[in-house]
Amino acid sequence: MLSYGIAAALIGLLVLFFIHNxxxxxxQETPDKDIQPAQMTGVVxxxxxxxxxMAPGDTLLSFVSPVxxxxxxxxxxxxxxxxxxxxxxxxPDGTKVWMNAKTQLDYYEVDSMREVRLVGExxxxxxxxxxxxxxxxPKLKPFVVQAGKINISVLGTHFYxxxxxxxxxxxxxxxxxxxxxxxxxxxxxxxxxxxxxxxLGQIERRIIDLDARNALxxxxxxxxxxxxxxxxxxxxxxxxVDVVYLDNQIKSEKFEAMLSRNSSLKDIxxxxxxxxxxxxxxxxxxxxxxxxx
Length: 293
Description:
The protein is an alpha+beta fold. Helices cover about 15% and strands about 40% of the residues.
């Protein structure tokens, strides 16, 4: 068995070896190849077990069910996009969804309601669908989005949802109509131009710039006083890269920018570096972020 002195010496050598190798890492000022933005790619698994993948050149997947052919109707599906992927599709009820990278969506429909379970980011344009005729006035079939522990009941049509494992990242933004957002016993009604978010563990409401939140559907990154950590998380998913911070304090720096999602990563990095606050280096598909000296 090694003595404590020898073991300590070996550990010291390993630490020195690690530091030496880290300092000798060969970085590049630009990527090996120009990393391109997210492409239309993802997979949809239907309730019958069949799977459909987006093929190159696809712009929209449609699962709208034939009205007259009940046997051919799709009542539930699961869709997922990877890092570096995105997807636009029509759900079986006609609702249009724009899914961001690293997003999962479960949809199912029964006679009384439609429900989506979401992890990630998506923009919805909900199709109006009515319940079976009862009485004189037809009633809209409920459309509910379950985002973790947050429940969103759709009373309108156009809205955006962000839902991750970190509840503090949650957002729901309304563009048209009305939605009810519920967290436990607390609920709020959103009107167009309002957004719900989490503050100190509680759901709150604020007025926001709709152009900024409409960015996912319209093809933009819009960062309003966004931390560098938040920006790099978004870029890592969209461009399918990894991020390493050489100075963790830089993650809290805030930036404002409006950038095309169709830009190459190199173009995005050039804009961020032009602020004079940060610099980037590359090794393969890993981005190293540091503050300027």
